[in-house]
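Attaching the record inline, Q. Sequence:
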Amino acid sequence: MKVFHICYSDGRFGAGIAAMRIVKAQRNCGIDAKIFVVQKYTDYPYVHRVSKFKEFYIKFCNEISTFILKKLNKSTNPVMHSLSLFGGKLCRQINNIDSDILHLHFINSEMLSIKDIAKIKKPVVWTFHDSWAFCGAEHYQNGMDDEAYIKDYMPHPYKGFNINRWMLQRKKRYWKNSRFYIVAPSQWETACAQKSNLFCNNNFSTVPNCLDTNTFKPIDKQIAREILNLEKDKTYILFGAFGGISNTIKGGNLLIEALKIFSERYDKTDVELLVFGASRQPDFPALNMPVHFLGKISDETTMSLIYNSANVMLVPSKMDNLPQTATESVSCGIPIVCFNVGGLTDIVEHKKTGYIANRFDTAEFAEGINWILNETDCELLSKRAREKALIDYDEIKCVKSYSKIYENIK
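Structure, as predicted:
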């Protein structure tokens, strides 16, 4: 079977990383899997990129699209929005690809337009790494009204042109005769997509993103800290997101609130914060604990060392699908504190592999940090977390799930 994956990049940001992990896992299992991208960061021969001219054109269109969004978008939702209005004129090239299945991932930033997607002639599997496909222009639902997309964004809380309603209507118009097989990495994302009027006639499956559990595995904490030049006798709490605390959807502001409460109410002796995804941020608020900025990390072995050096991973996302910082963390046997949002409850079992705080309750989040550090059997939590990762994120299991889907739609 020949499978061609379509994604904007081959290893930057969550969707690109997830897509590449699926491609690698499929190739390891003997499937002829390749990927077509706009931006290529790896040197793998099975990663095919658009021409330099097409890349320039797509980036230019994205600049225009971003400008239009800034002028038209009056939504109260601060997350990323995409128009997918112009597209990279890739339909003919994609339809001529020698493959049995086309597997879509993140195709925004004007790689494919809404109209382009409707013109694809081959069988399509589409993995939803966020909610854009069934929402309007937004990539995640507005926390004020998580189900506005079900009501076609009416009534809306702001005056003037409603970019989300307009976008959803365009998707309905162009995709009304399209049949995609929809895959979501989390049960939450599957449930959200199934509620959409846009995809009510499509088939759905939930297939968690896989990862290499031989890379993300438990390592002796003292050895990990020695390699990273961290002190062996400290208690390290870990947070990671592209852009650090400035990443709105990853809940950087909620993290700061929770850590301030933690330092006021609980014993913070020898507790230090590790932050990856950004270098030192000048606007980082003062905390009553030392903070170490580890910068942007792209190497998986280094990431595994960072996870293993920590005592607990903090994932204060305001909305998320199946964040890989969380799956990678549990695969390394590191318990997690998170809020009860999105697909995080697929990863964390309350007081079994971590601690789930009520939605945006920063005081309870702080309580969860203290519970893991001081009030429970961390070795047992770690063991359970690792066991869950081996079951849920196994590469062979992921490949088999997708192969079954492919066979059903060929």
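Residues 1 and 31 are 6 Å apart (CA to CA). The chain has a mean pLDDT of 93.

More tomorrow.
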